[in-house]
Amino acid sequence: MTAVSTRRSGATALSRTTGHIAIALVGLLMFYPLLWMLSSSFKPVSEIFGPGSGALIPGSPSLDNYSEGWTGPGLPFTRYLINSLIVCTLTVLGNVLSCSLAAFAFARMQFLGRKAFFAAMLATVMLPQHVTLISQYAIFRDLGWLDTYLPLVVPKFLATEAFFVFLMVQFIRGIPRELDEAARIDGCSWWGIYRKIVLPLLSPALVTTAIFSFIWAYNDFLAPLIYISSPEKLTVPLALRTFLDSSGQSAWGQLFAMSIVTLIPVVAAFVIFQRRIVEGVSTTGLK
Fold it and tell me: Which terms under GO biological process does the entry name (predicted)?
């Protein structure tokens, strides 16, 4: 009996070790492009695309790509980072405030057409962004908002992100209604229930909304490309595009170096708030 148990234990350990090795190899394969970009940011152009370009260890490592890339597009790269952080901050504020208010209304308040409005809101999740692109551009052009950040941030204050509204609705539905009734007996209005009862308990979903809003706004390329034209107003994704020249010589080394720099805020946000992301997704029922 002991020998059989020992053999089973050995087979289980061998199977587990094999699985871990396979997962590590797949992970390394998926991580290779990022490692190659990091390595190439320290190489001269001749080494990036020359013989042995796939090697991860630079032959003659240098920080020239970082120093030249920082002023490469014509303005200090700090300017583009600040522009992106302005857009991201306003986007996070808009989504957190407007989506939480809309979710509270759908989850707690009774009004005519509530289910129909909620279904229509969910339907917009399946609506491709490109379908409304031309009409939105015409509206913002008539309002005189082109070449400003208003088309990027104002819609966020109108609860247009249906995914976040749905996420918060799911969370609010899990909060006991008895808390609302107790607050109402104490004289709280709808606004008081939202501000004093629901909003503090909604913090996991709010953090999840804030993090995903930041990442999506920071990585957004299409919307800034359409609405922003002044070089001093470019966001980070558009600034990276300026290193590429279809008619001349592209600055690949500088592009890779600044790409690594732009990854730092997103990776830092994910590492710092990783536990809150998992907590928010799990408590809102999104799997």
Answer: transmembrane transport
